[in-house]
Structure prediction request, 285 residues.
Amino acid sequence: MHVDSLWRYPVKSMVGERLDEVLLSSSGVAGDRGWAVRDEVRGGIRGAKKIGGLMRFAARYDSDAGVEPPAGAGVTMTLPDGTEVRSSDPDVNEVLSRALDHEVSLWPLQPADDLDHYRRGAPDSDDMLEELRSIFGRTPDEPLPDLSVFPPEILEFESPPGTYLDAYPVLVMTTSAMRSLEEALPDSAIDVRRFRPNILVDTGDLPGHPELGWEGRTLQVGEVELELVTGCPRCVMVTREVDATIPVDRAVLRHVVSDLDQLVGMYANVATPGRIVGGDTVTLS
Prediction:
C-alpha cells in the first residue's frame, strides 16, 4: 500500500487543498481546519452540517504559508461564482454572509481555554432527536450513529476546544472504498471532495472498505505512526452540493447508512509525528 493523495482543509467545511507533502503533529495535519465560520444568527462555530453552502466554497492558504502554516496564517477563499476573498480583507465577513445568505464571521483558531468560543450554538429544534436527525441527515426510519465513539467534549462544544476538528485529528480513506462506492452508486458523483479525508491510501485490488477492519491497529505512513481509533459515522455533509459536477445526492448517505453500518473512512490519532509525502509506503501492523 502507498499514499495516493494528501489533503488539508484550511477552512472548516470548505473544499481543501491537495498537497504533495504534509506535516503531522498530535493535532493532525499542520494547518488543517485553521479557520472556521461562526454563525452570527444562532451562535457557535458552524460547519456544513448546518450551513450546507459552505461546501460550495474552496479555501487555500496564501502562498507564503507553506507546509506548516503559522497560527492565523492568511487564507484565500473562492466563492461559488468564482470570485475570491481573503481572510485579511476588511469586508470578508460581509462577503461571506452575502454568498451564504446567512450572517457569519470568519475566525482563526482561538486558545483552547476560550471555552465560550467553542461552545455549541443554539439548536434549530428543541427536540433533540429531530436536531440529531437533521445534523446526521437521517430519515425517521434510519438509525442514528453511536455517539459514544466521539470524544465526550463535543456534546457541549462544536469541536474539541483548541481545534475546529469534528472529532479526531486525522481521517484515513482508501482507494478501495472510493471504488466500492462508485460500483454501488453508479448514478452518483463519487468524489473525494464529498468525503474529506486527510490521507487517501492506495489499497490496490482489495475489495470493499478495508479500512473499516483496521480499528485498533497501527498504520505506518512515511515517518508518521497513526493509531486507528474508530470508523467515521457519516452525516448530511456527504449529500451536499460541491459544484455542478457534484450535486446534492441523498442516495450516497442512504447507501452508507443501510449497507455500510453508517461508516466511511477511519479516524486516527497521531502516535508519532512527522512528514508524509505522496507515494510513501503504508504499512498496517
In short: Residues 175-184 form the longest helix (10 residues). The longest strand covers residues 224-233. The chain has a mean pLDDT of 96.
